[in-house]
Amino acid sequence: MSRKRLQRSKKKLGQAPGSIIYTGERTKDKLNIEAFDFTQENYSEKELQHITDCFEYKFSNTVTWINLNGLNHVKDIEALGNHYELHPLVLEDIVNIAQRPKVDDHESYLFIVLKMLYYDDRQNLTSEQVSLVLGNNYVISFQESEGDVFEPIRDRIRHAKGRIRTMSSDYLLYTLIDAIVDHYFSVIEILGDKIEDLENQVFSASTQQDLSIKIQDLKREVLRVRRAVFPLREVINRIEKNETSLIKNKTLTYFKDISDHLTQVADNIEISREIIGGLMGMYLTNISNKMNEVMKVLTIMASIFIPLTFIAGIYGMNFNYIPELQFKYGYFGVWGVMILIFLGLVYYFRKKKWL
Amino acid sequence: MSRKRLQRSKKKLGQAPGSIIYTGERTKDKLNIEAFDFTQENYSEKELQHITDCFEYKFSNTVTWINLNGLNHVKDIEALGNHYELHPLVLEDIVNIAQRPKVDDHESYLFIVLKMLYYDDRQNLTSEQVSLVLGNNYVISFQESEGDVFEPIRDRIRHAKGRIRTMSSDYLLYTLIDAIVDHYFSVIEILGDKIEDLENQVFSASTQQDLSIKIQDLKREVLRVRRAVFPLREVINRIEKNETSLIKNKTLTYFKDISDHLTQVADNIEISREIIGGLMGMYLTNISNKMNEVMKVLTIMASIFIPLTFIAGIYGMNFNYIPELQFKYGYFGVWGVMILIFLGLVYYFRKKKWL
Amino acid sequence: MSRKRLQRSKKKLGQAPGSIIYTGERTKDKLNIEAFDFTQENYSEKELQHITDCFEYKFSNTVTWINLNGLNHVKDIEALGNHYELHPLVLEDIVNIAQRPKVDDHESYLFIVLKMLYYDDRQNLTSEQVSLVLGNNYVISFQESEGDVFEPIRDRIRHAKGRIRTMSSDYLLYTLIDAIVDHYFSVIEILGDKIEDLENQVFSASTQQDLSIKIQDLKREVLRVRRAVFPLREVINRIEKNETSLIKNKTLTYFKDISDHLTQVADNIEISREIIGGLMGMYLTNISNKMNEVMKVLTIMASIFIPLTFIAGIYGMNFNYIPELQFKYGYFGVWGVMILIFLGLVYYFRKKKWL
Amino acid sequence: MSRKRLQRSKKKLGQAPGSIIYTGERTKDKLNIEAFDFTQENYSEKELQHITDCFEYKFSNTVTWINLNGLNHVKDIEALGNHYELHPLVLEDIVNIAQRPKVDDHESYLFIVLKMLYYDDRQNLTSEQVSLVLGNNYVISFQESEGDVFEPIRDRIRHAKGRIRTMSSDYLLYTLIDAIVDHYFSVIEILGDKIEDLENQVFSASTQQDLSIKIQDLKREVLRVRRAVFPLREVINRIEKNETSLIKNKTLTYFKDISDHLTQVADNIEISREIIGGLMGMYLTNISNKMNEVMKVLTIMASIFIPLTFIAGIYGMNFNYIPELQFKYGYFGVWGVMILIFLGLVYYFRKKKWL
Amino acid sequence: MSRKRLQRSKKKLGQAPGSIIYTGERTKDKLNIEAFDFTQENYSEKELQHITDCFEYKFSNTVTWINLNGLNHVKDIEALGNHYELHPLVLEDIVNIAQRPKVDDHESYLFIVLKMLYYDDRQNLTSEQVSLVLGNNYVISFQESEGDVFEPIRDRIRHAKGRIRTMSSDYLLYTLIDAIVDHYFSVIEILGDKIEDLENQVFSASTQQDLSIKIQDLKREVLRVRRAVFPLREVINRIEKNETSLIKNKTLTYFKDISDHLTQVADNIEISREIIGGLMGMYLTNISNKMNEVMKVLTIMASIFIPLTFIAGIYGMNFNYIPELQFKYGYFGVWGVMILIFLGLVYYFRKKKWL
């Protein structure tokens, strides 16, 4: 994980600031460009072939959503950036997938970076960077590869469900962020299940297997989710507070709603952290309990049979004169003594609750 | 627990914002509507049959408390919301029981979400969402199912006990919140008893049973209470500070009192957390102490009888010529030596305080 | 402890706000009323028989200190409260001994709640609630039962020692708080001794006795002291900052002095917490060290005698043909071999520093 | 480490403030002075022989970067400082390599201290102090010894790559800091690898070797990186906020970019700390697991053979009358009993999952 | 330690505020009074015999430094205080050595309390209270007993080294504080060495000796240093920020320098705390590792010899008919079997890496 996250440093070290270099691993053969253009009455949905096809929307009266997939096509992204007058550092941040969630207010547009989180097929936590540019009448979204998180939004635009067609670009921005944040809940949910699973494993742990590395891994996972969620909360709070003409008062209520959701997610993460924090201790007590059990078996077996063996040893000695050996029922007498000792020790261990 | 808390995500994922969907599990066949309408002199108490029956109170001169039970009746709640001009996101929050305690100031009304906490019959901590809407002359309260936490308040209205009949709707709001917060004290009390119980169990722990999962569960319980209390304290503080014409200066003193109570509860929770935080360590030392005891028994038994058995073994050898075997009192001499060794070892272990 | 602290909830649940109910356990047959009335030149000291006897001081020109003992006499306290125009919530707080230290500014008077701490005869930490009302020319103090913490102040009034007779009621308030805070130092001191004692016990711990519960109890004690001291510091800071005409600038320097003392006490508490926090770990290492010692004795005894017993066993076998048995000095040869093995193992354990 | 860091105290104790004394260990025979002087059109690059050679740049119209290597040449640095009118305390700080990253605004110039971090050939974390002075048209940088961190910047100046030649001295300052901060990423990366390595070692730990000191050392390393990064973040934040005419608005965006990078680094450090924090616990559970395994082997061996040996001992006794000894197949019968006991115990241990 | 720190409470309990009582243990027969009086051109250095001898400096034009040693001479200090018009609470604080570092601005003078820290001959951390009063043209310093921390300053005054003779009394104050703070570095250094020593001891710990108390003691030592340093940093920050005419702008730069130094010291303390925090865990893993080693020796010895002894026991039985006993080479055959078992077990333990 840590290696992937930091690859940029290797590729970029020594580059001039504003150099636009893709730092991710997922590449696509072709840049996917999707454009939704709508007013309250109409909407059009197009798969664009060339980056220049989306230049026309800059000054249209309609609300436009341009969605790009495939950050490895840096040339096209640079062309788009130049046309829409985005700052070089913004373009650098879009293709550098190691960004921390943040918002930059560039007066004529708002630039937001956030992380889409999901569990892939093999239950690995995957984090994908999504950049959003909010202009007066458009939103441009940049994704590493296709995710279908936005599918319900496309549907709502197509069928004019909810308010989306009646509102302006800032509401569109809100729905995109909301879709991503809603997915955090399912991530948190899976995480919660994983923690409960691990807790049960730890509790019933047969000592065959070392669970400490699993605990440590889960801790790491929670920290990664935390890293996506907490800065985003700051981002949304800044959007709520900072006055920018790009986001209308009417829409602010909706951003407050996202903020509430993020606080809920954040609460869950903090609780998860506390629970995981206690897991290692729980594991340790569990191992110690198991050891206690092992020790008890040993102690009971040894404590009972060592004295008995000693007695047998006594009468195995070859002294010329050992009076007991001559007794007729000496052998049975010894058995009697041994059984008494045996019962005494069993009683003693019972009283100590070891048996 | 975590599953219940997060169910909303499954049901709601991909829904347009403002969709009013009940996310709880408790359903009622019929929506209970209860209306208290009072002035200093008179009061009426009605069980309403239909949601439209409570529309009339919107512009009355009296103070009205409408209490609704059964959040699964979303249609009715929507109808009420439309009549009382509540924002769609407010209605969404009312029926989405995964809310964090919060207050939203919508100018013409104040919207408050909080959590009612109690231990059910099987001593499980139960959390129920209560939403409160404070209008100029009314308070509407929304509950998942009937709780009798508000019974004393009904009594006070009926018999004009205390100030309640002489004050306006903001004081009514205060009494409702106060009733819920007062219940936190009994939750905290039970929690304190549970911690003490567990502490005693841990202290006297026979190693038969693993208590670490109980410690972890109790920790979770405290975290859940914390999650209800701490945000509510922020809510009350915001009510105290933010100036809203809906809450009169005279009533603010009472909200300050709630704030004091919540701080007391919060103090108790933090102390509980610290105590629980020490429990796992206490448990570990206890297990280790037990193991020490087991080890000592083993060590004493083995250390005493192994050397003695060795001596018996010596004289069990079949060498042709072992002079001691011929001694008349050889056997008794060996016994003497053994008893000396035995006493020596007992003395040694006594000195070490192992016996 | 937790039970006592929370009793109020049981008695009060469902009561209207402002209900004046004593929640403590200590009751007195008779309400003690003590009145000191003084100017720079004169002073009078009276034991009042009836609550109405202290009504006259409300508008006198002299400085008056009325000290009440016995919070179970709620009727009298209510009568006093009505005469001195105290808010019902203030009266409720006075007799509800579960208050957190706080200050309320009611314009015509200042209401302060704080905790008197001391160790009783059996070295149990005892916390007693003291409420103070500062009026223009009087201070009224409410105590659960007689404590002699204020005795030195009575002396100073009687003999006009220090500045007390030359200053107004705010300075009197200061001296009362100062007397209570000064007592915190002796509590902290005893606590420090207790921690050192426990540390020594843990260090030299014979494993007979489980100290973890003592550590946990001491932790609880520190948390209780903390709970009295930290909010009081906030209280004093608020008095220092908030401008109230009741406390003169000249007296503020003295409150700053209390604040300094409380910071010292708070520092000590935090250090105590850190030290106690380390105690459980120290105890665990100590137990583990002890176990190591036990294990070593076992290992040394077993490792030395088990091989020797094996050799004895060899020559105890009854094979027809065992050549060594025929050797003249076979027996002594075996002894030689055994002694060599014994010395070898002793040397080995010496080298490992186990002996 | 700690010794190196604090050497200054020994050398400097008792010196008058403003005494310019080099506290580092790395010395150079000759002070390296390198001067880059450029405008958008031209640039010159010189290796200066004498400190006075760089006096001329003070009032030139071009942008100048003077880079000095070898802080042990305090006389030269003092001469330079006097010419460029630097405060004596600034000069003291330049040669005292124990500084914490900081920025001082001296109106006519800005003084910044920061730490260059890298891993040397033997993978030891090395920290080198770099001081930067930003004047109106120049930047002077002071290094302990040559580091080639700035090489890419020299290249950019030479070949007019990026914006560097078109901007003023504040942008030059930015590129220098940016180059250092970029290197933090590779430090963080190596640190991440080290942590993963150690985690794997801990996980698979053979008990031959004590890893706790390695964990402690790694912790120390993270704390050292933290100490370089966190104060620098404050420094950059202060530059962003504080208005100084030396840094133009246009350049502030770039400083914001550094701030973002530092926050990323800081996030990584905090995650590293949490992971390392869990390592000791993980190690302890691992050791305990290993001990459990050892104990099980002992317990199984002892529990099986001790009872069997006891039986053998019984029939090794020399009583005159032991009936079983006379049985024809007594010997085989005993073997049968022993095998049954053996199988019973194996079954028991299998059921307990110890085998 | 805790006892010394809190002695004041015993002596002072019940005293009127402003009572001037020395609470320290170090007493001097005679109060040492030393006066340095200087201008840029001249200086005089006198050992004063009587406290009244230093009254004359109050209104002189020169800068005067009066240094007093021996806080037990409270009468003299009171006389001095009255002459220089110091507040009674200030005098109380000077002789009460349990003060926390603080600054009080009394308009006509500034009162500063701080702690001088050093390790005495037996390497015990010693803390001595130093009080400083800054007047318009004088500084009065109060020490418990002579420390030679100020010797370099005396030298600088005598030989007019540095700026000291050219500056006013605020600069003198700065040099005194600076001298004390500089000593913190050597305390930190020794502390660092102690931690490293202990770390090495813990790492190589033979289990003979319990190091947990040493860890706890070192923790306490760090906490004591922290207690001296952190409040002093606040003090210096307040001096920097609060505008007082007693400290000139020109001197503020120097106080900022002290602040930087204190932040460095504080950083070191925090790192020390983290390192010590890890020590107990490190110690525990170390003990557990040692125990593992002990257990392995036991397990190997027992596992090898117990089965062999069992075999020897078998052929020690006295059954009439044991066929193997008759075999000619039965004895050697048994030896062969035993050696095979021995080798098998050795191989097994080798494979497990226990040997």
TrEMBL record, chains A, B, C, D, E:
Q: Where are the transmembrane segments?
A: 297-317, 329-349
**A Pfam family per the record:** CorA
Single GO MF annotation: magnesium ion binding
Keyword check for Ion transport, yes or no. Answer: yes
Q: Where in the cell is it found?
A: Cell membrane; Membrane
Q: Which GO terms describe its cellular component?
A: plasma membrane
Question: What is the membrane topology noted in the UniProt record heading this document?
Answer: Multi-pass membrane protein
Coiled-coil positions:
none
Q: Which UniProt keywords apply?
A: Cell membrane, Ion transport, Magnesium, Membrane, Transmembrane, Transmembrane helix, Transport
The keyword Glycosyltransferase appears for this protein: no
- Grouped into one coarse class, the protein's main location is membrane
Name the job this protein performs: Mediates influx of magnesium ions.
| PANTHER family assigned | CORA FAMILY METAL ION TRANSPORTER (EUROFUNG) (PTHR46494:SF1)
What family is this? Answer: Belongs to the CorA metal ion transporter (MIT) (TC 1.A.35) family.
Q: Can you say what this protein is called?
A: Magnesium transport protein CorA
